[in-house]
Predict the structure.
Amino acid sequence: MSGAIERSVLVELGDVLGDRLVTSQAAREHHGRDESPLPPAPPDAVAYPRSEEEIARILPICAHNGVPVIPFGAGTSLEGHVLATHGGLCLDLSHMNEVLEVNVADLDATVQPGVTRTQLEQRLRLDGLFFPVDPGADATLGGMTATGASGTMTVRYGAMRENVLSLRAVLSDGSVISTGRRARKSSAGYDLTHLFVGSEGTLGVITQVTLRVYGLPDAISGASCHFDSVSDAVGAVIATLQTGIPVARIEFLDDMAMKAMNDYSATTYPVAPSLFFEFHGSHAAVQEDARNVAEIVGEFGAMDFRAAIDQAERTKLWKARHESFYSSLALRPGARAITTDVCVPISELSGCIESSRRDVEELKVSATTVGHVGDGNFHLMLLIDPDRLDEMEAAEEVNRRLVDRAISVGGTCTGEHGIGLRKIDSLGKEAGSAIHVMRSIKDALDPAQIMNPGKVLPDV
C-alpha cells in the first residue's frame, strides 16, 4: 500500500468529516514525525474525528480502498509508531478528549482516547484521586494504552497493562467492540483488553478506555542518595525490594545523566550514580519507610542521603527527571538522541547496565543512562551527530548488543517504548515462533492490512 489517496476516496471521507479532513502540507508534516530519530514520513491526509461513530464510518472506506490508517495521539512516541511509511490517512484523536466518567467509590475513570495524562490528573484531583502511569511526556491515554506505556511509579502501581480495566475499539471493517466490564476481575472468555494494550494501532482504533485510579495518599515523602558505582546503586535497589518496603518510585541516573540534569534544570546534585525514591502512605508510614531505606542504602555506601524532601523540591526533582531526554540532548547541542529501552530481571540489571556502559566507551558514543530500576527497566540515550554515518552505526551497534544481552538473560527488547518501526527484528528474536500467532491475530482482525502497516510485525 502506497501512493496518494485517490480523490474519490477523499470525497467519501469528506462526506463524513467535512472540514476536519485536511490535506495541507503543514498538517501532514506535523503528523509525520515523532520523538524518534527516524526521518519524517507524512500521511497523505489528516482526519480529526469527533466520535466513535465517525471512526466506524471512516475505517470501512479506507479498508475498501486499501488506504492505510495511522492513529495519532500526541506524537510523543520514540520508536516511529506514527510515521506514515505507507502514506495513507492519519487519524488524529485529539478532538475526542472528554473524561466521560469518574467513579469515586469504584476507583475507576472512563476517558476518550485524546484525553492527556495531565488533563486526567487535573480532573481526578477534584475527587482526591490520581492516575499513576506517568511516561514523562504529556501523552494521550489512548496512545499510552496503545503503546503499553509505563513510567516512574510502575514499581508500586504497575504499567498500563495493570491499569486498563476495559476499552472500546473500532476494527478495520467498522465494527465496534467492547473488551470488558468495569468489574475488577473476570474469567469470561479471551482477554481482549490486554490484546489491545500494546497493539500500537495495528489491530484497531481505541475509542474509549476505562482505567483503574487511586486515592491520593495522605503523605508523600522523597529521598535521594548517591553511590561510588552502578553496582552499589543497583544492589541497594535489590535489597530494598527484597524487604518489601512499598516504594512508589525508585529511579536511577548515572553520572552523565546527573551532570545533564544539573546543567539543564539548575539542580546541584553530586555527579555520581544516583537513586531517587518516593514513598506514599500515612505520615508515620512514609517516615518509617524513609528510615528503613536509609539503613539499607547505607550498607551499600550511599552518600548524602536526604529524606523528607519538601513538595517544592520534590516537584522540581521529578520535573527534572522527566526532562532527562531533553537535558541529555543539551549535553551535545545539535545532536540527535537514539533512545534504547530494555527491561531485565532485577538480578541482571547491574550487569546489563555496566556492560552497556563498556560498549558505549568501546564504540566511543556519548550517552546517558536512566532507569525505572525498581522494575528492571532502563534506557540509554545515545547522542549522535545526524550527519555522521559512523556515529549512527556505532549507536545502532550499542543498541543491538543491549537488546541481545537483555533477551539472553530473560529480559525484553522493550519495557515501555513499544516496537514501532525500530524494534521489529528484536521482537522476532524475543518472540520466536510466537510471532506467527501474532501475525494470525493481525490477519484476523485486520484482513485488509490497513491498520498502521509496517509497525510491530514485518510486512508480508
In short: The chain has 17 helices and 19 strands.
